[in-house]
Amino acid sequence: MMSEKVDGADLVRLSGAALGFDAGEPLWKDLDLAVRPGEFVAVLGANGSGKTTLLRCLLGLQPLSAGTVSVLGRTPAAARREVGYVPQQRRFDPLTPVRARDLVGYGYDGHRWGLPLLSRKQRRARIDAALAEVGATRFADAPASRLSGGQQQLLRIAQALACDPALLLCDEPLLSLDLHHQREVCAVVDRRRRDHNTGVLFVTHEINPVLPYADRVLYLAGGRFTIGPVNEVMTSQTLTRLYGSPVDVIEVRGQLVVVGIPDHPVHHPEDHDETQETAQS
Ligand SMILES: Nc1ncnc2c1ncn2[C@@H]1O[C@H](COP(=O)(O)OP(=O)(O)OP(=O)(O)O)[C@@H](O)[C@H]1O
Description:
The protein is an alpha/beta fold. Helices cover 33% and strands 22% of the residues. The chain has 10 helices and 11 strands. It has helices spanning 51-58, 76-79, 100-112, 120-133, 149-161, 179-196, 207-210, 230-233, 236-243, 272-279, and strands at 12-19, 28-35, 40-45, 66-71, 83-86, 167-171, 199-203, 216-221, 224-228, 248-252, 255-259. The strands form 3 sheets. It has a 6-stranded mixed beta sheet with strand order 5-6-7-3-8-9, with helices on both faces. A hairpin with an 8-residue loop joins strand 1 (12-19) and strand 2 (28-35). Helix 5 (149-161) packs parallel to helix 6. The relative contact order is 0.15. Mean pLDDT is 87; it is low at 270-275 and 277-281. Bound molecules: adenosine-5'-triphosphate.
């Protein structure tokens, strides 16, 4: 099996990692992944394939069943302050009077818990910078619950950026957005990693808006995975091997469509290494 090259600057290192619950089959196993500064990794895969659980592991909320994980060269819990997290979205409570900038402030305060207090001016500057980074300055003082779904999602990203993270973990940030807003969210995250060298793990079911930005795809399916550049992973051949049954990746008017994903992927343990070798960068 080919291993990922790791070097001292890697933001995430998973080595021989497996994660499962109780006595059942692991969600994934033998996962080697190194994420470099500024790298954008799209995490794709069917419902229940363990994408959210992977992020929870990098946040220190979920221990591995096997293997090792480090974030910024430390344990995930020790690195938490420098990791921005956009959780799966819920719309804000329509009765909440909280303004957009207050929400971003919560993100900022949460990460500074236990650290020396900064002046109000410094705090405000950081919040303004996060709002500006996502293009939310114009609605910074509006009640968050009155904003559109797209605006609320940009705010969640600003909240995650308020701590000026070295690593950004996004869980389904495109859910229930139209294509225009999906592209806007992807572009904001892409700009962040380019301007600040922030590494990104971006979990999504919406493959088309994210693929133009992704350096690599980690595709999870039925206890297995493949990692590699977009043009190597998003092919009929690679996904057929991963799922263990015929899957077609076809292009329709410039959009990729994946057809034939089985309800219950069938695969053979001996296929595992071959898939990884084929698709890994
Ligand atoms: N603490 C837990 N205890 C037991 N099972 C869990 C726990 N957390 C997650 N699971 C299970 O692990 C599986 C993977 O969940 P996860 O949320 O990581 O999948 P996902 O790929 O993000 O799915 P989706 O695309 O639907 O969001 C699910 O079957 C879930 O029920």
